[in-house]
Amino acid sequence: MISNKSVEEIIFKKLKEETQCMRRKYILLEEMLSYAEALSIDMPIFLQSPQGQKVFCSAINKLVNEEILKPVGGKPTAINELYKKYRKIYTDKKDHTFAAEIIRSIESPALVDYYINNYDDFVNDKPVIEVISRFLRQNNKDFITVNERAYELFGDEKFFKSSDKERSQGETVLKRLGLSYEHLGCYETPEPFFNFQKKDFSQLESRTIYIIENKDTFWSFKYHIMDSPSILKPDMLIYGEGKKILSSFNFVDEYDIDPGYDVLIYFGDLDPEGINIMCALKEKYPQYKIEPFIEGYKA
For residue 225, which of 279, 267, 192 has the smallest C-alpha distance? Predict the structure, then answer.
């Protein structure tokens, strides 16, 4: 079991990285809470507990004590003696030799800001940075998949892929450099999901789409609701397959799902894991109207 001290350090490092990568002067407490919650699927629930609130508060205070952030306002205005708004502290106490080395090593349009503030991370990431910078200097870049680019540059097609628990080194370095896959001339290929849809699905102006977490429930919806007279009128059924939907949801782009008109209804287990999947889905894709199937939970 991970100790509260370890969790505090993980949250601190995450918030430090996000703060030093941002170009704004100010950051809200609720933004930092969102960054912390995104660390794992269980983190939102943990941070609501007294222990979690204490850990989060300690991580924020550490940012202040290390002169990374400064509270804004005369006195705390949030819970646990925290402030609702903080200001990023800029310092001119940089080692110019280190800064010059970093600037020479990093090719535009990559940003140097994070590594100038974190030289130890620059030393650790330098081999990856050098490979990426050499690639950025090239003029002709074929547009290929992320896995293909990762294999071409690093001999590992999963180099830019995160696990469920932590971000990969490749993804971490890209974020620190302020780069996207587009800068590397590559694109993500979403994992397909299994689905059924009405014959006139593509002609409908607005559609109701059900995402079903479990296989048995998915097939029950197919036979007893979609293929039979029912008060429910699903235009598409998507088999969420548990947590897989968090990575496969991007596949909706293949069906021209319109965030402004189409409604997505999630139906999963009424337990912490099922609730966390739906919350994580809503957080990861906020542009879509994803709502729980309330009537289904009442049945």
Answer: 267
